[in-house]
Amino acid sequence: MIQTETSGVKAFIGVDTGGTFTDTVVTLSDGRLGVGKALSTPGRVEQGVLDSIGQAAAALGLTLSELLSRTVILTHGTTVGLNALLTGGGARVGLLTTAGFESTLPIAKANKLHGLDELDVTMPVRWRKPDQLVARARIAGVSERVDVSGAVVRPLDEGQARAAIRRLAARGADSVAVCLLWSPVNDGHERRLAALVAEELPGVHVSCSSAIAPVVGEYERTSTAVLDAYVAPVVATYLRALQERLREDGFGGVLMILRTGGGAEPVEHTLRAPVNTLRSGPVAGLAATAALAAELGHANVVATDVGGTSFDVGLVIGGAMQRASTPMVHRHALAIPVVEVESIGTGGGSLAWLDQGLGALRVGPRSAGADPGPACYGRGGTRPTLTDASAVLGYLSRLGESMPLDVAAAREAIRAHIAEPLGIGVVAAAEGIVRIAADQMRDLIRRTTIQRGHDPSAFALVAFGGAGPQYASWYADGLGATDVIIPNLAAELSAYGAVSSDLSIGVERGLVPGPVAEAGPAVAATLAELAGGIEADLPGAVDSVTAVSGRAPVLRHTVALRFYRQQRRIELPVAVPVDAAELARLESEFRKRYEEIVGAGTAADGTPVEAVGVRVELVAPVPVPPPVTRPGGAAEPVDERAAWFAGAEHRCAVYDWRRLSAGCEITGPAFVESGQTTVVLPPGRRARMDAGGHLHLT
Amino acid sequence: MIDEITFEVLRHRLDTINDDAAAVLARLSGSHLAAEARDLNTAIMAPDGRVVCCGRYVLAQVVSMHLVVRDILENYADNPGFGPGDQFVTNDPYIGTLHQPDVVVVAPIFVDGELVGWCGSTAHQADVGGPNPGGITYDARSIFDEAVPMPPVRIVEGGRLRRDLEREYLVRSRTAELNRLDLVGQVAANRSVTAEVGRLCGQYGADAVAAVMDRLLERTEALLRERLRALPDGRWRHVAYVEYRPHGGTTEAVYAVRLTMTKRGDDLELDFTGSDPQAPGTINAAYPALAGFAIGGVLIYLCGGLPWVPGGVWPVVRIRSREGTVVHARWPAGVAMSTAATCQAVRVSVNACLARMLEASRDLAHLVMASCQAAGGGGGTVHGERGDGTSYATMTLDEITGGGGATWSGDGADSSGYTTSPGASCANVEVNEAYLPLLYERRAELADTGGPGRHRGGVGTLHALTPHGDGASMTMMSFGQGLQHPLAAGVCGGEYGGQSVVAVVPDLAGLADEGERRLPMPSATVPIRTGELLVSVSQGGGGLGDPLDRDPAAVLDDVLDGLVSVRGALRDYGVVVTGDPRRPDGLRVDDPATSRCRDDRRHARIGRPPAPPAPSRQGRPLSAVLDLLPPAGDAPHREGVVACGRCGTVLCGAAGNVHEHLVVSDASPAERSPLGAVYEGADRFVLRRLYCPACAVQIDVQVCRTGDPVLAAIEVL
């Protein structure tokens, strides 16, 4: 029966591997959605992916191979590289760099503070450099030098370089990064070095900075090349194993991997520079938010994600995700495009503690971690967390789908550590914890918008992640957001973001900063070279995606401009071929955009505008089948339970998200539960479900 | 009484509002000093000016911002007065800024006609006028040879930026457009704070916001007093030196900053009255700069883990100084270079004395941190013309690569910059080469520059650069400190961090030569010709503890990392490293030879075989290596005695100057100077090491003028 219904139906799969769960969202061309969730399987990550897809298949009445054989595109967000970085499980990297500049990476631009948590920032004895991914002994200088104009000041000494390469290998390097001064302007020496490494150390991975991150600024470029060399072997091993397993189970479509800069690229491209997967998790949530914004007609959206240990905020402006200007991962600088996500250490697992000296109840930034986790997990945790506060207040009735909560343990943790020392009741203490956490979250939303010159009241707000729907009623309060949305699939939104990401192949190149009026030849030549490079090397995936969508891929050319020596760069689309008139238009467009972003009167007439980079991006739209709309109707509660709000106990209706009808309205105090999340509606809050299955809070 | 929950919500909100203001300023500012060196900061203050919230960027800039507010309260209450929407701009170092390039803008915060507080922002300007680009005239005879400062002027009235005053402010600068953007940014930052604090008062009531500010001030003061009470009373001393060649002079005069720090109960006094008379120009600190660096030092070196609310620290710390001295200049002495000169000596002195105090506590010794780099080395400006005839003048920021101080938990952070400007970064080589007609030959952490100790200070960094491009010219003006002697003090018997070097040399090859290298002090301006190299070394951080106690395995790790040379391992640590460095595991520690070498060193220190360590310590610690023992029976010292904490040998009565009872060994600072640099005038200084006369453990290291008596660095009260 099901077989006949689904014959001829095409499937699109998004899979996002997180720390605890691997989520899958399947969209079928007939509009049906399937969701899968399986425990992540560290060590054999591909197993969790297959399990999760299998669950989604089962939800749609299909076997794993039935689903996979119908799948035309499978888009995956992976944390394999990030986990290797966080656990120190990457390669033993050797670094080749220009002789005399071996200290670039250890100096790390003298950073001892950026990326530390709030408590360490006021504890100078804990100030420290980022962890060293490469021991100084495995950094070797190579005699060569190129200057700002690309001219060779000192030729590459190949004999010395070979000796340096052998020395790195003798010191245990099993992956090599290459970063030379001015390689974005002249990559000849880096390419030659890569060839020498291939000759001297066959089979060893090489990451060349000029191929991965050809932008001016040697520290960030070196750091990026080293990160790439550090994670590349691990990521490659994983992706190949995954490809193999998928193929065995009947998958013949296109496998794409999410990139930190947004979009997804064919897996062959990912394997060239796996560093681009390092922060793809938050990207998936933002990609979904952007898709949702388009669906709901919002131009500007704040995406908020409450996880176990952090609260993440990203912006969608004019429908587009924003790029970070000085991105970092685990305190290491990145010189690749990275979607901007601000983060604080406030999540469900954040510890609540008494700052006796200050007389303050504090929440975070330290977390209870996964094991033993919050007290209510019943695994022996005794210190109170934000999740414990929610459990005590009755906001949560279970963990995940069905695991019971140890409310007594949560109550005891809050009583012993917070309520009793403060001389207040357990409920008041728990409500205080929720309020403080929510205020920190709201402060981060304000910070993310206001610091970039935006007014939070000009944004709609989307709340997702396992715990976003629990706290959104509080942290969205007072921001004046135009709409507060808990999306359908809130807990699996990252997987939805994967399935709704377009294919994107982007290449960029830094230019030596120079006045834009004089940059014409360099801009034109570099754009043509990059575009030629993409077109000469078009993966088959582009044809496959185009065939499915029926929409031709688009080539986008952009130029990055900035005022003399400023950090803020603005990327503007440029018409090719580039002529003097186009450059003049770009300059005046830049000044206009700058004042829009930074403020009127800030684009000084006398300050020169520089061209600092160009980018070419090929985008092939991936079709997202429109979901089946929900029928209309009223909301019927499925249960009732007691919960505390503002010191009073309320009987609250409990609704099942899956059974809510389009247009129905729910008035708090109430809960809406779906598989993995609970929407908490305090008294006075109301929620309305739209036809797409998203809840809107008012 | 505000409850713990509302308090936390409002506290977090105020901090966020202040951080937002700093971001607004950085966003609007066009300056790379804001973007890279993060030479800016913001503060929220109570109605009387006490600083409640401050950013972590450049601490010294904001901790004394109340001085600007006090000046306005005292002088302008009626004329011109201040009201809602007003803002005042000043760069007057005699009133409240560190030096003229730091421009402060403050604004009162009014809610419903009531003054609920102030906010302020500060940003370092590329140029504020005066004879030289960049604002510093090395040989100024008085402040009239520098940028003439602007006392607080009401530049924004009722929300409107006054055009006439804006022009009056900007006309003096060579970089008026950049300054205008910073001014716009500072005004906008203050506007955002006034609006947001107003909104907060609307939501929670002005009384609640005032209560939170009061509580932050009160609790911070109480917590700091509690921390002080937990520490033993005492008096500690440190002396640091600044060199300066006054206008028309032919040699550098030496200016001593002398600090006597006394702690009694919960009161801390920083007495700088013994410091030398002021110089005619540029290196002096006016009182606000002294206060900014002294209080900033107290925050960093004593207040770790406490709330960083400077307004709560002020009432606890009493600063004593004499007008007319180098730390407290009398108008019209020049002060433009204060932050790179006298202020660094002030900060190091506060650092050293606080470390000595903390050492005396078992519970708080973990907060001890040796001194980070001071200014010098790559500090200064380069200017000249490019091949196309356009001119340039800027700081390379290369000096922000010196070492951090060692702590009990580990070695100092290598090449990590200033502790007092923790957020600052050096610039990429490629960025400097893109904008300036120069080519770097080297930027490398320099071995043996970290102060030796049981825990090593962070290493400093060597830079070498040369004019590059047809027709390019280059002239350097060095801040020139720490060339004749080191500045970054070690603690607990650890050595000073390596000193600065600035030199013009024909090539790098010669730098590898061992032995002394006699160098001239840089004059006010030093040309670098095509083919010549400007070499600079930023200072290393101070070490902690006797270097002979460092784990030889850690020394070997440093050798393998290139942070200590094989020669340095022997010279500084008595560790014998042998083997072939070209082989992967070719280097190793020769343990028996190391053991013998260290025994010989201890023997040589005191001229006889050293006593063995005692099994355990007695009494209470007076320092990391000294103990204070109660009086015993009929012993002569009724007040108790001081004993070596290592071997237990009684050294003197508790009332004596214990340092006079130690074995003193004076050496030339040149022995450990990077690149063997010996500057003219270095012979005026000695590196004084003090050892236990019985077991030979290194108890203290000091920089002194030749022939100075032994400093009473620790006094029991």
UniProtKB/TrEMBL annotation, chain A:
Which intervals hold domain Hydantoinase/oxoprolinase N-terminal?
13-200
A Pfam cross-reference name: Hydantoinase_A
Q: Tell me what this protein is called.
A: Hydantoinase/oxoprolinase family protein
Domain Acetophenone carboxylase-like C-terminal residue range list: 570-697
Ranges of residues in domain Hydantoinase A/oxoprolinase: 221-503
InterPro entries of this UniProt entry? ACX-like_C, Hydant_A_N, Hydantoinase_A, Oxoprolinase-like
From TrEMBL, chain B:
Which species is this record about?
Nonomuraea harbinensis
The segment annotated Disordered runs over 581-621
Where does the signal peptide begin and end? none
InterPro entries associated with the record = Hydantoinase_B, Oxoprolinase-like
Q: What segments bear the compositional bias annotation Basic and acidic residues?
A: 581-602
Which Pfam families does the record associate with it?
Answer: Hydantoinase_B
The protein's name in its UniProt record: Hydantoinase B/oxoprolinase family protein
Indicate the segments forming the Hydantoinase B/oxoprolinase domain, all copies.
3-547
Q: Which domain of life is it from?
A: Bacteria
